[in-house]
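Most newcomers find our protein records easier to grasp once they have seen one. Each record describes a single protein and holds just a pair of labelled lines. A learned vocabulary of local backbone shapes supplies the integers on the structure line. Nothing more is needed to start thinking about how sequence determines fold. The record below serves as our worked example for the rest of this section.
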Amino acid sequence: MIDFKILVVDDETEFTDVYKIIFADKGFDTYSVSSGEECLELLKDQSFDLVITDLKMGGMNGMELLKAIHEHKYNCEVMLVTGYGTIESAVNAMKLGAFGYFIKGNDPEVLLKEIDKLVKIKTLEQDNMKIRSRLNDFNYLLDSNSTKFKNILKVSEKAALSNSNILILGESGTGKEVIAKYIHHVSQRKDENFVAVNCQIFSDGVLESELFGHEKGAFTGAIERRIGRFEEANNGTLFLDEIGELSLNTQVKLLRAIENKSFERIGSNKNISTNIRLISATNRKLSEEVKIGRFREDLFYRINTITIEVPSLRERKEDIPILLNFFLNQLQQEMKKKITKVEDGLLDLLTVYDYPGNIRELKNIIERLVVLADDGTIRKRDLPDLKMYDNSLQSPEEIKSLKDIRQNAEEKYIRNILAMCSGNVSEAARLMDISRRQLFNKLVEYDIKH
């Protein structure tokens, strides 16, 4: 299926049926209505890439529909379908902003070629949007009402002026990678590569190859030379996410590369110099990991010349309205769905909740609300679990140990995320920013079937 939605408007069902068959055969997602009025009603709730409308219809004609679509500023192109005797009107419609016209009885390939032009234009626009999005990923964090978070940004800006190694601490889902990207963006290395590696998703041997690269024939399956992330990030920024998950063996090799500012590809004796700014992040308390021997003390002091601790979302709830607007705009574009209203009281409920999954969890909740929205309105009834937003449900009779409360909250959260992912363990683990193995352990611990 091609990511391109077409709405056909024609009061003659035999024509709409033919169009739907032709477009479906080419992989287009196609809908049809029998009048201009129905089209406008549908456009209130759904987004389409292209509206193909007959010029002459009972009630609202194609020209009037074109004008109405432009007046309402619906983000879609319009093509007119006309008979031989009304070509002049179709040309006039193009002057008013129609993308093109198609003459009934002509070869459908002519129409498909015009649609193909639109598909290519859309692809280019999406590529440009992705580039702009990557550049602006951190914008929603920069716009903050939180004094604590504004101070974090000031520290980040000062840290960016140096080449010192930076350690970013914070709970899962707080936006540590976004802060890392921001530091890179305001540093003198901003025109060079920002290379991110999630340390917890690779096994030891694979991670070493990922970081330092390998030569052809270095091990079974090494069919060609591979450039590692250190090499790729040269003169730029290397971001090691979840550095607390590194094995002691990999920690030794990483320490050597940091101290010597050089490394060797696996299977090679050639020393390769590297000039990188290293930014690391973890949700673990590394100082405690050092005490129990799970993290090397010398590496710890190497990576945390400057430490930045990102506050949890429950510590910056004044930013929830900003984040809500940001994610709504983002998800509307991704889903091609218009949201025009937030139900009264919904924002209050979102603000009461403490978000153990932080910003990532808030985004998941908003995505759910957008998916389930009717008539362009996100509603309280579509929240994943209303009980978790209602503090009045807590009573003295329900007092438990802090350990039990944490376990209950964790189990409920895991069940909610699994439900949102339709039981997909890999997707749920990714959203919760843990490994599949860690999630499987939790499923066993809480006897959660999936």
In short: Residues 5-134 form a domain with the Rossmann fold fold (CATH 3.40.50.2300). The chain has three domains: 5-134, 145-311, 317-445. Residues 389-397 have pLDDT under 50 and may be disordered. The first helix runs from residue 13 to 25.
